[in-house]
């Protein structure tokens, strides 16, 4: 089997995400692979359509959340010695965006946690499950214990 050349870490900044990040870092060192990071921003505030009332889309809150996500991503990239050009912030559905980025950047291994924000009650979280089922490359789900 060929060595992995480009590893993509999917990070949600939830509890335990450092364990997933360091596993991806170790694998990249082991295979002498390039390491990239993706965080998908999916925390859009409710719009009026959600509650059927006139609640304006709050751009200030969105911008603030986005700035926080950017900051955490750049701090993590620094900690893992990943260049800023390989730390990507995307918007949309986490599993769809992780898969899209992996294909676009010709990644050959995706590393995610077994559980994150959407997975505490499940054997495998919904993002991890979706990525595992639809990715065209290998996927490693780092086992995280339930808290
Ligand atoms: P979940 O399946 O949502 O419980 O999350 C499992 C794993 O998927 C997390 O540990 C992350 O590695 C990855 N993941 C979840 N949400 C995101 C996100 N918004 N951006 C990037 N990766 C994510």
What is the topological layout?
Elements: E1 6-10, H1 17-31, E2 34-41, H2 48-51, H3 59-79, E3 87-91, H4 94-104, E4 109-113, H5 126-134, E5 138-142
Parallel strand pairs: 1-2, 1-4, 2-3, 4-5
Helix pairs in contact: 4-5
The structure holds adenosine monophosphate.
How would you sum up this structure, described in words?
The structure is a single chain. This protein has about 150 residues and is of the alpha/beta class. It has a single domain (about 5-145), classed as 3-Layer(aba) Sandwich (Rossmann fold), CATH 3.40.50. About 40% of the residues lie in helices and about 20% in strands. The protein is built from five helices and five strands, in the order βαβααβαβαβ. The protein has helices spanning about 15-30, 50, 60-80, 95-105, 125-135, and strands spanning about 5-10, 35-40, 85-90, 110-115, 140. The chain has a five-stranded parallel sheet, with helices on both faces. Helix 4 (about 95-105) packs parallel to helix 5. The N and C termini lie far apart (about 35 Å). Bound molecules: adenosine monophosphate. The site of adenosine monophosphate (AMP) has 21 residues, from strand 2, helix 4, strand 4 and helix 5.
């Amino acid at each position: 089997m060929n060595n992995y050349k480009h590893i993509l870490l999917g990070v949600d900044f939830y509890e335990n995400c450092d364990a997933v990040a360091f596993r991806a870092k170790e694998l990249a060192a082991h295979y002498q692979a390039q390491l990239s990071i993706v965080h998908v921003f999916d925390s859009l505030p409710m719009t009026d359509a959600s509650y059927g009332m006139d609640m304006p889309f709050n751009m200030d809150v969105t911008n603030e959340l986005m700035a926080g996500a950017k900051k955490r991503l750049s701090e993590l990239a620094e900690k893992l010695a990943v260049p800023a050009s390989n730390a990507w912030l995307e918007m949309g559905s986490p599993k769809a965006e992780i898969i899209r980025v992996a294909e676009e950047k010709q990644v050959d291994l995706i590393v995610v946690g077994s559980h994150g924000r959407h997975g505490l009650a499940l054997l495998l979280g919904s993002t991890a499950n979706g990525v595992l089922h639809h990715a065209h490359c290998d996927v490693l789900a780092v086992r995280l214990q339930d808290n």
